[in-house]
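Schema walk-through. Below, the input block comes first and the output block second. Nothing else is stored per chain. Lengths vary across the set, and this one has 339 residues.
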Amino acid sequence: MKRWLPLLVAASAFLACNKKSSSSQETVAPIKPLIGFSLADLKEERWQRDRDFFTAKAESLGAEVVVQDAAGDPNAQLRQCDALLAKGVKILVVVPKNADAARPIVLNAHAKGVKVISYDRLIGDSPVDLYLSFDNEKVGEIQAQAIVAKVPKGNYLVLKGDPADKNSDMVHAGHLKILQPLIDKGDIKVVAEQSCDKWLRSEALRITADALQKNHIDAIVASNDGTASGAIAALEAKGMAGKIPISGQDADLIACQYIWKGVQTVTVYKPIKKLAEMAAELAVKAAKGEALDAAGSRRMQNGGDSISALFLDPVAVTKENMMQTVVADGFHTETEVTK
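--- output ---
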């Protein structure tokens, strides 16, 4: 019996090691593809929603997302994206702070074989792999149409967005599609037209207060809800809030509340959950080595490059359809809007 004892011990040890090895292999989690999501600034409510929708969808598809907030600094955004590349992200999704300053982000990513999705805002003059956004010219058209319907003739103040953001130019091009024929007829006079640096509410407030001091204003075309909010603050200081039609964009909660109270005329709702989840799905596929193909995309010029672009449709939101749009989608609750 003693002769067999060493053999039995050895066999037991072998079986134990083999079982441990097998168990270890079974518990090893698959490596998750790493996605970098670089946002220009997370101060605004809108971008916090994009981050949360995007991250939740990507994680549900088995990816890991590293989010970076440039806090409004284009140089910081470039450094952060370089750090994401060094970390080994398989794809970059970028909301550029400055369209032109973000070009090196694309070039640096491509040098490492990493693709770039330009999310909602276009990175200028660069071969981005996909530009995913809403139809920004259509946004501008919706804004201008809603204000013209209220004031077909009169003095207009036009508050454009950040001059460093290509989307601002696209939105204003939409404004002009509606306004220019009426300007040419003499029905509308644009007494002031200025860009609001960084889309700042404080800039819009300052510009509107100055315009009200110098001119009689009948209508305000504001390019987003932040600038609309600044303009409304200037109107409130003059006791004129609710007396001058004003547009916006993004369906921020305060804008929806203003619309419900009759202080703001229209906002443009962009179903960002749909945008963020679509971006997440495409990013995860690309991170896994699949082609970055978006059904329904079209080609557009981006400086010297022809790039793939996919645009979703924006929705005009007024008091009349508030419940059927942002509330029905769960973007805001009825209680929040009517507060």
